[in-house]
Model the fold of this input.
Amino acid sequence: MSVEYRVDLDAFARNLTRVREAVAPAQHMLVVKDDAYAHGIDEIVRRATAEGVSWFGAFDVETGRAVRAVAGPDARIFVWLLGGADDLAAGVASGLDLGIGDEALLDDLAALPTPAAPARVHLKIDTGLHRNGIRPERWGAALERLSDLVAAGTARFEGLWSHIAEASDADDDDAREIFLAARDAAVEAGLTPRLSHLAASAAGFARASFREDLVRVGAFSYGIRPAGGPGEPELGIEPISALTATVTSVGADAVRVDVGHLHGLPSALQGRFSVATPGGPRRVLAIEPTWSIVEGWTDAEPGDEVTVFGREGVASATDLAELIDTIGEEIALRVSSCVPRRYTPNGPRSAR
Ligand SMILES: *Cc1c(COP(=O)(O)O)cnc(C)c1O
Done:
């Protein structure tokens, strides 16, 4: 035994059911960027496909192709980081849904050899985050370009989308106004998107008017609640994973376990949280590169297992995040790729 990241795929399936219920009648797009928030993209996509998830949010073309390989030809796979003409061509060839937030990419698309099937374009309006997206003052020009592509059979106007901060309802409301105005302008220009999508986990759960046709849900699908927000029971979700470690030696008042900051446990958490042990919750006294020191318990012995965080632990990823002013995703993403993932039910242990 040694340090492991355990992923309970049945718990994941229960979250998927819950997310689907919460965003209905909109569809759930499962966001799988960052190796499915470090849970391992292959197993996550395989189970999600078996559970009927048909939309995936894959971030970039490389990830999109990885999803395609597991999810099969019918899955809809949305990517929104396109690095230029070659990337765009690869995305079109893999039948991906392309999130385009840059006019230059429309030119790149026009310059491609006419694809066998029109490229599925989701045009992004910048509603205030300024990450990327077409600025409102350029929206009309972008629509004209898209119109030409649609007329030439090169593109289909599949979606209109944006991303919002989900930090304040008032800011999100302003963003939504810009979004709706962009859609009106498109319809007026003769371009009606088949789908609209705006919200991620938080607004998708809390605000019906933001759900549109699709809600891009990452965090809540994996049972990661928002820092400073509602708890898991209130949201109806559960953590799907746990970081576990093993006692390697026992001292007078403390034990050593084989997880440290090189495995992804932030040193700043030292002395600030408890792990679940066979003797009950015990405080983590020190975090070293490859081991930690934990308060001891009666009859502790080498080979005993502790749950550092997550399912059946004392703290969730977000509980730990709140101690050091970050978000649960950050704690999950830090779990090093050198930590083997183990999947239940009946999943193999896999080194990545
Ligand atoms: C990460 C991301 C999401 C998912 O956000 P969560 O809060 O994890 O649900 C949705 N849309 C975009 C564009 C993203 O980058």
In short: The pocket of pyridoxal-5'-phosphate is lined by residues 31, 33, 57, 80, 163, 200-201, 216-219 (CB under 6 Å).
